[in-house]
Amino acid sequence: MSTPFHAESDSFLGRVDVVGLDALFSEQEKATALAVRAFVDEHIRPHIASWYEDAVFPREIVPEMGRLGVLGMPYAGYGCPGRSAVEYGLAAQELEAGDSGLRTFVSVQGSLAMGAIHKHGSEEQKEHWLPRMTAGEAVGCFGLTEPGAGSDPASMTTTARQEAGGDWVLNGTKRWIGLGTIADVAIVWAQTGEIGDGRGVRGFVVPTDTPGFTAEAITGKLSMRASIQTELHLEDVRLPADAILPADSAIGLKGPFQCLNEARYGIVWGAMGAARDSFDAVLDYTMGRTQFGAPLASYQLTQAKLADMAVAINRGYLLAHQIGRAKDAGTLTPAMISTGKLDNCRVAIGIARDAREMLGGNGVTLEHSPLRHANNLESVRTYEGTDEVHQLTLGRHLTGIGAFAPHATR
């Protein structure tokens, strides 16, 4: 039996582009994606298997990412790159094609920590932190989630008490905080009013060398192993009065939610990078793997699975593209973000799992990327809002009824 014809693609997205996605993007946008892809090929792919196996985040790569221009990418001023939302999305999917952990670093640093300062900070806070963070000279983390307050941040128990002299004193614990053990600055959200009243939540810029601030790495992870997740402890952390994020936009939960939406937007694209890489890995494997005298790619079951993967990935890119153009146009809504985060994560994890299955026994090794992607996507699917949170966000959009708690109100 002859070897099947292997069509090449002129699309910058490669062989998976079956609907002409390439035409949707400008030359500048494609150049940005290809520059990040070259970075991933040089700095991430040769090492990611060992980083993942050894549970190592490569701290030395941070300044390289700064030089690449992907830290705080969508923001302007203060040394930030000031690129479009679509360019940032394309960069995110290229980084996640390398590994979710490395894309997550860019998200925590840029969308969450830098985003909080850029959106809500004072001029002094912006000038002090943003140039260093966009260059990769300083690392930030974002302390919102707590051991008992994940999907319900209004129930956080971390407190900030202002004393007579103006100083703030913070006490509490945050959990599942990316980068905490290597961060130079933490954006910590705390209750300044009654516990359980989200209207009293405020954000604080906390240098991590402040007495009383400690961070402990969470170990034993089966996902996101080339990434850092931590628990933060704040014990009588004393801050000056000007440590608070002063903008009116930072009062209450709307402050952290704006930052979370920035991170969720990156996930809409990033998940497609993991899906595309899984597809490419299994396409190459089935083209070269011979069983029963013929390449696996020549069998009908294999081609049916590849076709379904390609259709799902193209649909995901179309969704990401629509959401990205809306973000650049200023018409993006929370329902759009929830739609993209919900569906693209579900699509990506399904493709990664199917690709692992098609690799047979070889698919459980770090020689091949799909199972690593699938494991990582378990975390990506969970953080920045679980499936259920986004389903309820869409449910509220569709019905006008909030159903996040048993006492749902109109």
From TrEMBL:
<feature type="domain" description="Acyl-CoA dehydrogenase/oxidase N-terminal">
    <location>
        <begin position="26"/>
        <end position="137"/>
    </location>
</feature>
<dbReference type="InterPro" id="IPR037069">
    <property type="entry name" value="AcylCoA_DH/ox_N_sf"/>
</dbReference>
<dbReference type="InterPro" id="IPR036250">
    <property type="entry name" value="AcylCo_DH-like_C"/>
</dbReference>
<dbReference type="GO" id="GO:0004361">
    <property type="term" value="F:glutaryl-CoA dehydrogenase activity"/>
</dbReference>
<keyword id="KW-0274">FAD</keyword>
<dbReference type="Pfam" id="PF02771">
    <property type="entry name" value="Acyl-CoA_dh_N"/>
</dbReference>
<keyword id="KW-0560">Oxidoreductase</keyword>
<comment type="similarity">
    <text>Belongs to the acyl-CoA dehydrogenase family.</text>
</comment>
<keyword id="KW-0285">Flavoprotein</keyword>
<comment type="pathway">
    <text>Amino-acid metabolism; tryptophan metabolism.</text>
</comment>
<dbReference type="InterPro" id="IPR046373">
    <property type="entry name" value="Acyl-CoA_Oxase/DH_mid-dom_sf"/>
</dbReference>
<comment type="pathway">
    <text>Amino-acid metabolism; lysine degradation.</text>
</comment>
<dbReference type="InterPro" id="IPR013786">
    <property type="entry name" value="AcylCoA_DH/ox_N"/>
</dbReference>
<dbReference type="Pfam" id="PF00441">
    <property type="entry name" value="Acyl-CoA_dh_1"/>
</dbReference>
<dbReference type="GO" id="GO:0000062">
    <property type="term" value="F:fatty-acyl-CoA binding"/>
</dbReference>
<keyword id="KW-0809">Transit peptide</keyword>
<dbReference type="InterPro" id="IPR009100">
    <property type="entry name" value="AcylCoA_DH/oxidase_NM_dom_sf"/>
</dbReference>
<feature type="domain" description="Acyl-CoA dehydrogenase/oxidase C-terminal">
    <location>
        <begin position="258"/>
        <end position="398"/>
    </location>
</feature>
<dbReference type="GO" id="GO:0046949">
    <property type="term" value="P:fatty-acyl-CoA biosynthetic process"/>
</dbReference>
<dbReference type="Pfam" id="PF02770">
    <property type="entry name" value="Acyl-CoA_dh_M"/>
</dbReference>
<feature type="domain" description="Acyl-CoA oxidase/dehydrogenase middle">
    <location>
        <begin position="141"/>
        <end position="237"/>
    </location>
</feature>
<dbReference type="InterPro" id="IPR006089">
    <property type="entry name" value="Acyl-CoA_DH_CS"/>
</dbReference>
<dbReference type="InterPro" id="IPR006091">
    <property type="entry name" value="Acyl-CoA_Oxase/DH_mid-dom"/>
</dbReference>
<dbReference type="GO" id="GO:0050660">
    <property type="term" value="F:flavin adenine dinucleotide binding"/>
</dbReference>
<dbReference type="InterPro" id="IPR009075">
    <property type="entry name" value="AcylCo_DH/oxidase_C"/>
</dbReference>
<dbReference type="GO" id="GO:0033539">
    <property type="term" value="P:fatty acid beta-oxidation using acyl-CoA dehydrogenase"/>
</dbReference>
<protein>
    <recommendedName>
        <fullName>glutaryl-CoA dehydrogenase (ETF)</fullName>
        <ecNumber>1.3.8.6</ecNumber>
    </recommendedName>
</protein>
<dbReference type="InterPro" id="IPR052033">
    <property type="entry name" value="Glutaryl-CoA_DH_mitochondrial"/>
</dbReference>
